[in-house]
Amino acid sequence: MRMTTPRLLVLRALLADPAQERYGLELAGAAGLEPGTIYPILVAFETAGWLSSREEDVDVHAAGRPRRRYYRLTAAGETAARTALDSAAARRRTANPRPAW
């Protein structure tokens, strides 16, 4: 999977607490992304098996809002996320080496 900056930001947000379920708008805020950007990323990660999701069981009229879909990293997703972030950091170090002095 191609790792773009927005995808890396989402992975970083998810890894802040890998076991926690988080809904899309919450993840968008944590990643610093617009809501319209995050949902295609979440779908791609879920399709790849990196995320599992569930729709909350709530009375939308009583709650006064739509149901939320909650996402959580799978075990494979947590490993893949750490690998992707490590690879991106290594690429940055290679592209911008520090002076030897």
TrEMBL record:
InterPro entries: Metal_resp_DNA-bind_regulator, Tscrpt_reg_PadR_N, WH-like_DNA-bd_sf, WH_DNA-bd_sf. Pfam families: PadR (PF03551). It comes from the Bacteria. Residues 26-81 form the Transcription regulator PadR N-terminal domain. Gene3D superfamilies: Winged helix-like DNA-binding domain superfamily/Winged helix DNA-binding domain (1.10.10.10). This is PadR family transcriptional regulator.
